[in-house]
Amino acid sequence: MTGATGPLSGVVVLDLTEYVAGPYATMMLADLGAEIWKIEPYEGDHWRRQQPISGRESRYFIGVNRGKKSAAIDLEKAEGRALLDRLLPLADVLILNHRPATVRRLRLSYDDVRPLRPDLIYCSMTAFGEHGPFSERPGYDLLIQALSGMMDFERKIERGVPLGITSFAPADLSTGMYAAFAIASALFRRALTGEGQRIELSLFASGLAIQYRPMLQVERLDAGPRRQLLDAVRAAREAGRTYEETLSLRTGLGLQRATAHYYRVYQTADSLIAVACLNNRQRRALCRVLGIEDPAVEGQVFELGPPLSAEEHEAKMQRFEEAFRTRTTAEWLEAFEAADVPAVPVLLTEEVFDHPQVTENDLFFRLDHPVVGPILQPKPPVRIAPGAAGAARPAPCFSEHVYEILGRAGFDRTAVEDLARRGIVRLPEAGRAAEGAEAG
Fold first, then answer.
1. Which of 6, 40, 191, 222 shows the greatest Cβ crowding within 10 Å of its Cβ?
2. Can you tell me whether residue 318 is helix, strand or coil?
3. pTM for the predicted model, two decimal places
């Protein structure tokens, strides 16, 4: 898809974001057909420096910037900031992820830019929110996991401290998704009313919002135990107790759900298998296949058995583990499919690309990047008909489209090169200027 057939075709997004959350949001908008003008700092998006492959092209940057156009402009210089004012009237959306003080210094607040485009959709992202004691602090996904309670709820400990989620960035990616959703909604509203909107998001707020389980408190049931726990933890910290020691203060520690064995990963005779039985009908079916009797799942479909002591839990776990080791993963999968038991193999990352569920659903792009060569990248999970979703262009090279983007604001090639000589913009590296560089 080139952007011409998506539902956001014709929408121009001026993207000042770096790292993950903002770029992920604008990549989603690109997948829906929007034209993304990624205005990078003079030295480039910082994410270009993470796991570099060649020059300024890196795995991290390529992963969240598919389908965009890049121009590097030094907004710290007055003339560079003036260039942005030339571009703003051409844009439908402005998205940025600077700290509030930086927004004020660069004159990028909603009130600063709205006069240039009164119906602008303005989207501002911060780490912790625009108000409060942490508002001016730098913040990244790991810090949000820590402050939001997410890390504690995971209960994964190494060397005495909790581990963060590292396989993906939950706060960053959810903020990007929320931003894309809000921007698309604001564009729809503008189509009805002609009015722009201001959108404000933070990684911290998103980190709370996605925790639908731990962040739901039933005050009648939870307020008292929460106060008791906090009092006990406060005393434990004053006494110098470790994090692991404070975990023992949680109510019910040492007890395990009677159904915990039905939602986990097991070692088989040759590899690993994951089972996920969320009701007693599925649990009973699993027991029949395994040849195990379990009175705890003989009740009504969603009836939970009483908690187990640590000893009871361990004995039951050993029975399940011993049963699973008697057959290969393929043999169990065949038996579970016949019994309608939810189960899949646990794949290595390297195995995913060629799995038939991936290939038969055409879930990856194969794109030709001008510097790093062919790449595989997941397609957006959304299918739209008529039309299409998915910007089938690789992430841009550094300042690859500076001639084209500034050309839309009336700058010819000579003017752009003059700006580059004076250190206001960056030119693409030799041979990497986008086609259509003569625009304007």
1. 40
2. helix
3. 0.92
Torsion sign, CA atoms 416, 422, 424, 427: positive
Residue 3, number of CB atoms within 10 A of its CB: 21
The alpha carbon dihedral of 35, 36, 42, 43 has a sign of: negative
The residues near 428 (Cβ < 8 Å, ≥ 6 apart) are: 397, 398, 399, 400, 401, 402, 434
pLDDT tens-digit profile, the chain (440 residues):
444 579 999 999 999 999 999 999 999 999 999 999 999 999 999 999 999 999 999 999 999 999 999 999 999 999 999 999 999 999 999 999 999 999 999 999 999 999 999 999 999 999 999 999 999 999 999 999 999 999 998 888 899 899 999 889 999 999 999 999 999 999 999 999 999 999 999 999 999 999 998 999 999 988 998 899 899 999 999 999 999 888 877 644 445 677 889 999 999 999 999 999 999 999 999 999 999 999 889 888 777 777 788 788 899 999 999 999 999 999 999 999 999 999 999 999 999 999 999 999 999 999 999 999 999 999 999 998 888 888 889 999 999 999 999 999 999 999 999 999 999 999 998 656 665 444 43
CA 195 vs CA 88, 182, 344: distances in Å:
16, 15, 49
- Identify the H or E element spanning 152: helix 150-154
Q: How far apart, in whole angstroms, are the C-alpha atoms of residue 5 and residue 107? A: 35
Q: What is the token pair recorded at 295?
A: 């009175």
Question: Distance between CA atoms of 213 and 379, rounded to whole angstroms?
Answer: 29
Compute the distance between CA of residue 13 and CA of residue 18 in angstroms, rounded to an integer. Answer: 14
Structural domains for the chain:
12-209+362-421 (3.40.50.10540), 260-351 (3.30.1540.10)
Dig out the tokens for 174 from the structure: 């959810």
Cis check: omega of the bond before 386, within 30 degrees of 0: yes
Helix (H, G, I), strand (E, B) or coil at 223: helix
Angle at 47 between CA 406 and CA 39, to 5 degrees: 15
Q: Residue 324: which of 364, 276, 287, 367 has the closest Cα?
A: 287
Tell me the torsion sign for CA atoms 263, 266, 268, 273: positive
